[in-house]
Amino acid sequence: MAQAEDSQWEDVIRMAVAHARPRERAEILRGLLARGDAIGDYPARLRVHLLAMACLEHATELDPRVREEVNERARAILPPRCREEATLLAGVGHLALELLPGPEGLEDDEAQEVIATAALIGSDAAMEVIRRFRHHPATGARYQLARSWQAFDTERYMEEIIRQLDPATFLPVVDAAGLRALKALGGRPCIEVAGPFTSRELLDSLHPRQITHLALTENDEIGSLDFLTEFPALRSLMLVDCPGVGSLAPLAGMPLTTLTVTDRDRVGMPCPDGLHLLKHLRHLNLQVPLPPTGLRALPADAPLTSLILGHPVEAGFSALRHWQQLSALQLRSLTGAFTDGAWDTLAHLPGLEDFSFGLAAGETALRIPTGLRLPQVTTLSAINTAHGPLAELSHSVAAALPAFPALRKLRLYGLTGGTIALPPLTGLPELREVFLSYLRSEPAPELPPHIELTRFPRPRT
To answer: What is d(CA 198, CA 221) in angstroms, rounded to the nearest whole number?
Structure first.
């Protein structure tokens, strides 16, 4: 068993298991498990345990207890539930492909990560795994299928996988070959184009009249958005790291309902001028600094129902009252300059059901007025946007909870992973769901049976 972690010995070990008598077979498999358990390097240990799992295919006669021991080791990572597990499995190579299950019997997160594992391996055998999932109904699985085509032959993947996907699935394109393949496919309504393509290249490749959702990412070539007037059906636009875009005015006459502007990599992208001209916006996500006029730069007569602000808001926050129909608000960078009057503005939004907050970098505590009550809010999310200590996130949640007496859902996003102490939840009679993303609650919370605790990624124990 000394060579068990060496991939060149895989076939030898499999043959030995296949031709062994039942008692010898059990000894070999238990030897594999013991060898794997003794290896300190996790990827190498995983390879040996997965080899034992692969040997079961040829172990028709085997002590059920040994079979269960082998299966127990494999269940530690099969099927994968998160990208870290998918990456580890992909590092094992073709052996992992043989063991990837599905799509039958998989949860949605498992289906997505099985696809991701196969894409990371990227071989012809991996393509066969991908094909099994091409009709999977889950959004996450379709998302992963759309984002995996660059690992395989472009033409084959476009025909066998992309053509089968729901048209509402975003398809990413990152190079000229991808644009050509997209054009040959006949276009798609939802496209994300990453890279320094010119407006002329986009017009020539994207079938503009059928595009309803467009994302432009990492593009320093485009300055004017005039070319988007050739996209009459455009409803949603995302601009990510497009520092040359200075004005949204060309979009004024278009039926745009969703807009996202993000300076993800801090390339210095400002908030473009002309926001106030977009009269049809319902969903607005600004991950760039607001203009000096703050919220007064937004279209006062737009029917906004959701608003996400990634930078501090220090001016004109009272303008939020223009959007009485606002139902979801996310303030990702609260500072000490967020006044009592700003908090009071939230109390005058009768339709606000979903509120999310995070603290700006350098802030250590949430400052919320004593006595503030927002009974219309039923979902509260706390986001560790500054990647600060999780104890600060816990303290901020504890400070916020009294203001939200009618909560039904509480969601905490750690972003970095780790443990958090949940604050007391006894004063929330309507609470039904607690969701923890990349967080573990320690000590384990003692929640009443009517409150469901969910974690992402899903724990295995």
So the answer is: 6
Burial of residue 385 (number of CB atoms within 10 Å: 0-12, 13-18, 19+) = buried
Instruction: Provide the strand spans (E) within 266-385.
Output: 283-287, 306-309, 328-334, 354-359, 379-383
Determine the Cα–Cα distance for residues 362 and 98; give it in Å rounded to an integer. Answer: 48
Identify which of 48, 52, 77 has the alpha carbon closest to the alpha carbon of residue 67: 52
Residue 79: phi and psi, rounded to 5, are -70, 155
The ranges assigned to domains in the chain are 7-76, 304-314+323-461
Quote the CA–CA distance of 355 and 400 in Å, as a whole number: 11
Could you give the CA distance from residue 265 to residue 218 in angstroms, rounded to a whole number? 9
Contact 161, 130 (CB under 8 A): yes
Q: Token match 């049809």: residue? A: 280
Say yes or no to pLDDT of 368 above 70: yes
Q: From the DSSP assignment, how many helices (H) and strands (E) are in the chain?
A: 14, 15
**Neighbouring C-beta atoms of residue 256, cutoff 10 Å:** 21
Q: What does the pLDDT average to over 153-167?
A: 92
Distance between CA atoms of 42 and 236, rounded to whole angstroms?
44
Q: Pick from 76, 157, 153, 143: which is nearest to 115 by CA?
A: 143
Give residues with Cβ within 8 angstroms of 132, minimum separation 6: 102, 103
> Which run of H or E residues covers position 345?
helix 340-347
**Which residues does 140 contact at the CB level (< 8 Å), separation at least 6?**
108, 109, 111, 112
Q: Are residues 362 and 391 in contact, defined by beta-carbon separation less than 8 angstroms?
A: no
Q: Name the token pair of 61.
A: 């006669």
The 10 Å Cβ neighbour count of residue 101 is 14
CB 296 within 8 A of CB 277: no
- Residue 115, both tokens: 């696809």
pLDDT tens for each residue of 201-226? 999 999 999 999 999 999 999 999 99
b/e map 142-156, b = 16+ CB within 10 Å: bbbbbbbbebbebee
- pLDDT tens digits for 322-352? 999 999 999 999 998 899 999 999 999 999 9
- Select from 233, 258, 265, 227 the least CA-distant residue to 245: 227
Residue 239's nearest CA partner among 216, 270, 266, 211 is 216
Residue 83 CA: distances (Å) to CA of 88, 233, 385, 391 = 9, 35, 20, 26
